[in-house]
Amino acid sequence: MPKAKGKSRRHKYSYNLNRKRLYRSARRRAAPRIACSHIRHAWDPTKSVAQNLADMGLAGDPNKAVPIPKKKLLGMEVESNGRGQGKKIVRKPYVVNEMEYEASLPEKKSNTLSRDLIDYVRYMIQNHGENYKEMARDEKNYYQDTPKQIKRKINVYKNFYPEEYKDFIASLKQEKMDVQ
User: Fold this and answer.
1) Is the pLDDT of residue 101 over 50?
2) Looking at residue 73, what is its pLDDT?
3) What radius of gyration, in Å, describes the C-alpha atoms of the chain?
4) N or C: which end of the chain has fewer CB within 10 A?
5) One domain, residues 94 and 164
6) Cβ atoms of 92 and 54 closer than 8 Å
7) Which parts of the chain are coiled coil (predicted)?
8) Are 100 and 128 members of one domain?
């Protein structure tokens, strides 16, 4: 394979270029990447990170925010040095309040199963009941799942959709009653 054009010539090193200064200025210009939208909106780019976090009532260093009390070597008594830490002024308390409210909201269930897997599990239960060996030999077992794999898939379906599974089993029992 031929070489790319221009790769064969030697590159000269430029002694007059200050690489340290270029690197430092690029680092200084980069703004911090903020994930939380509440913090992002309240962020003041003219202030430092520590000042911004202090204004919002947040801690930059958790070890300084909640210090671990020093214990005496012999006893379990906590040393107190007599000086109390000054109250910090929170200029933007709404940030913490919004974050606490968002954290208190109930979590939505995001795990779902594919429609194909649900249909597969329902077909297997409908035709074979609890006989996993028979399910493994079924012609609809395209992926040649072992009995244990099929059992695992059925258990996943039971855990994800417990009400739907109960209704399905009840309808199967109802069908058997009607047939008999």
Assistant:
1) yes
2) 47
3) 32
4) N
5) no
6) no
7) none
8) no
Helix (H, G, I), strand (E, B) or coil at 78: strand
Q: Do the beta carbons of residue 170 and residue 179 sit within 8 Å?
A: no
Alpha carbon 137 to its chain's center: 39
Q: In the predicted model, is pLDDT for residue 30 greater than 60?
A: no
DSSP 111: -
Statement to judge: residues 27 and 55 lie in one domain: yes
Check whether residue 37 and residue 97 sit in a common domain: yes
Asked if the model's pLDDT at residue 160 lies above 80, the reply is yes
Q: Which residue, among 92, 95, 115, 91, has the nearest Cα to 103 in the 3D structure?
A: 95
Instruction: Give the predicted TM-score (pTM) of the model.
Output: 0.45
Determine, yes or no, domain membership for 82: no
Domain count, the chain: 2
User: Who contacts 107 (Cβ-Cβ below 8 Å, separation ≥6)?
Assistant: none
As a whole number of angstroms, the distance between CA 139 and CA 119 comes to 15
**What is the DSSP code (8-state) at residue 15?**
T
Q: Residues 98, 119: one domain?
A: no
The mean pLDDT of the chain is: 82
Backbone angles phi, psi at 78, to 5 degrees: -90, 135
C-alpha span between 2 and 153 (Å, rounded): 53
**Is pLDDT at 78 greater than 50 in this prediction?**
no
Q: Which domain holds residue 31?
A: 19-65+88-104
Note whether residue 80 is domain-resident.
no
